[in-house]
UniProtKB/TrEMBL annotation:
InterPro entries: Fibrinogen-like_C, Fibrinogen_a/b/g_C_1, Fibrinogen_a/b/g_C_dom, Fibrinogen_C-term_domain, Fibrinogen_CS. GO terms for molecular function: antigen binding; carbohydrate derivative binding; signaling receptor binding. This is Fibrinogen C-terminal domain-containing protein. Residues 21-239 form the Fibrinogen C-terminal domain.
Amino acid sequence: MFTLCQYQLIFFHYACFYDFFHSYSGPKNCVEVLKSGFRLSGWYTIYPDEGAPMSVLCDMDTDGGGWIVFQRRRDGSLDFYRDWDSYKSGFGSQLGEFWLGNENIHRLTAEGSFTLRVDLEDFDGTSKFATYRDFLIEDESKKYTLRYSSFIGGTAGDSLHVHKNQPFSTKDQKNENSDINCADTYRGGWWFEDCHYAHLNGEYLVGDQKVRSRGNIWHSFRGSSYSLKSSQMKIRPEI
């Protein structure tokens, strides 16, 4: 899905053709894209590790821009109840919801230090965020374990602390420390730990729920019985 030259707007096509015909090695991340003069949010081709090119969504508007978005939920149009290989390679649409892929997230964070930003919105139109320092995802041999050094801050509070240093799990690969299969029970892959305090890949539900922990959850924002409307998870090199 996330292949070179799949762009929707004219200036994306220009960047794509320049890369193709000139074999341009190009920017490593969205900060370098921004510095090269592309200031509109959208999909760009980057070269994060001198390997294969990668198409990523660059958020050029939030907090100075330069963010690579690796997760987007907004309307429930995409099912996130998927297997290990799907989460590994990525799924979704450039025009809608998507998961960039654990292998891609690992590639992006394998070198250097990155800030993670989580942007959230509830069904009342309230938006909040949280940021984390030194975010990275380990490789597949380490089950794409989530690492970060510290919570920086933000209005949404810290709901990721339970998931720090936890491996990724899916409905067909249980890696968490729990008596149940959390990914199967809560219908989405995540870094579970008996099971979750945050879960942004869960079943898309609307607002208040009678059953706790179902839906898209960020406990320190609206609690464990409220499913959020939208989320974005994004990274940017630390300054």
